[in-house]
Specification:
The chain is α/β, with parallel strands linked by helices. Helix content is about 30%, strand content about 20%. It has 3 domains: about 170 residues, no CATH class; about 180 residues, Immunoglobulin-like (Sandwich), CATH 2.60.40; about 180 residues, Rossmann fold, CATH 3.40.50.410.
Amino acid sequence: RGTPWLRLAAMLAVGALGVTLAYRVSRDAGDTAGPAARPVTAQEPQTAPTVRSSEALVVGESRANEVGESRDQDVLLKAEVDDRAVAGRRSVGEGGEVRAKTVPLPDSTPQPLAIPSPAEAADGSGERPASPAGAGSYNLQADSVHVLEAQRQRVREELSRRQAAPAASSPSSEAPAGAGRRVEDAVFGIPDAAPSVVSESEAVARRVRRPEPEPVPPPAPPADMYFRDAGTHPFVDPRQDRLSTFGLDVDTGAWTLVRSYLERGMLPPAAAIRVEEFVNAQQYEDPAPRRGEFTLTAEGAPSPFESGRYDDRLHLLRFAVKAREVDAAARKSAVLTFVVDVSGSMDRENRLGLVQRALGLLLDELDRDDRVALVVYGSRGRVLLPHTRDHEAIRDAIARLRPEGSTNAEEGLRLGYDLAAEAWRDGAINRVILCSDGVANVGATGPESILARIGKEARRGIALTTVGFGMGNYNDALMEQLADQGDGSYHYVDQLDEARKVFVENLTGTLQTVARDAKVQVEFDPRSVEGWRLLGYENRDVADRDFRNDRIDAGEVGAGQTATAVYEVLLADDARASAPLATLRLRWKSVDGGRVAEAAQELVVGDVGRSFDRASRDLRLAALAARFAERLKGTRESRGT
């Protein structure tokens, strides 16, 4: 009753009340059943969630590590949600309340899976509890406590289940369900990627331990390396033999070859070590002579390798012979004949390839008046390039070197010497340079036949320098003997820097000889010395009586080169400072005319220093090089130091 306007208002109010009640009933029914998460099927795209701060699911969580021990701090997890893969979304409500949403599975999930909301996870049932009054949202602070407790409980249950599960008895046994999974995966319903069996202790060890690296086996020593051990000099009583005589030597091949062993992580054979070549390979500061051919140096100091064996009486003496220097511009013109081994054993980059680069370095240092010829040998020897000054032709011939056949070293050297004899020039440097690995396996290749030919050619004035290449299938003994017989020097090249040292930095010394048949004799005074020992030069010994026999072949010294000898001596307790200790004598032939000359240097007891640390740099360097060589060689005298 009433006015029509009042009746209309009453009808509208009743209708609105009915709509409200229907909405409430529908919503409460939906809350009781939980939000209907859209299942992810195999046909639907599964997008892995990424982090995006604008759309975040914030869940108060206690993360568990791989052995199930929960962390003390809660972690905020953020996951972006793709609108197309979400069944329903609730927005952030007022007052800091957070609505739940559903996220898709990563691509690796093998079966459909819906991740429950935080509230659903709280009771572990997968159903969301009925919302309190004013529902439609839940309070973050209150719900977080329930979520954390529920998740911790599920972690504890998962750990208990794993510990109760029987371990597999063999690799073929079937793994228990869930074994080997991360606790987080089990708690949040992520399925196994692959079945495995990992106990809790094994999981801890897997995280803590790192796999130990496999032991690296020692490198295999190079095969077919040929050396000749010349032995080791013993101590000598000067009352029985006061003279030490030997031919000078400036070879350095053993030093470089042993260095190659060490750089490869291998110890060299004892026979590969020649102490004097270790000593002579070092760079000394001895002054060059202002007049004449040589400067002689004699010095001494207490030995740092005494070790109390000789009651502090052991001393080291250094005798050095420094040849006059020749400026590169004043060097004589050269007639060089290269004999290059191109056999199959040289078919390696560190052999024939290195030879080619080394010859290229030397060619850059030659003058216009220098002539170069190239002889190669494999199964047969042949002349690749006659003597010429044309550098382009020389470079072209070097570039055409190719490995071929066996190793007929004798024929190659014979052709090389024949070619050098034809091009021989008076007053010039006439030299054959052999580049090889020293292997000779065809023809009359015994060392005696080759050495005889080389000695004959050396007497004609054609010297021989040998340069060795390669590790494995290498004949060090032959290369060293060839150089000694050919009045030349022996070098070993293992890298381009060493080739630069031989053919560039020391080219004048390598090519131009300033003294022939140089011999050294040291005489010790038995009143001051109770014993002496020469370190090295074992295969350069000369009979004492032949020191002044000028027909005896000895050593050659190049321009600017230094030959050094190190002695160990036992000084007498009552030796006076002014008493003579030793006398160094040097005898040689001049290159021009063959004139014989001799020089001497005396050393008295007072000249020997009282401290090794205060000795000259050259003495300390030579002493350490000699001792290093003897330690590697394993000599009885070097043990215990």
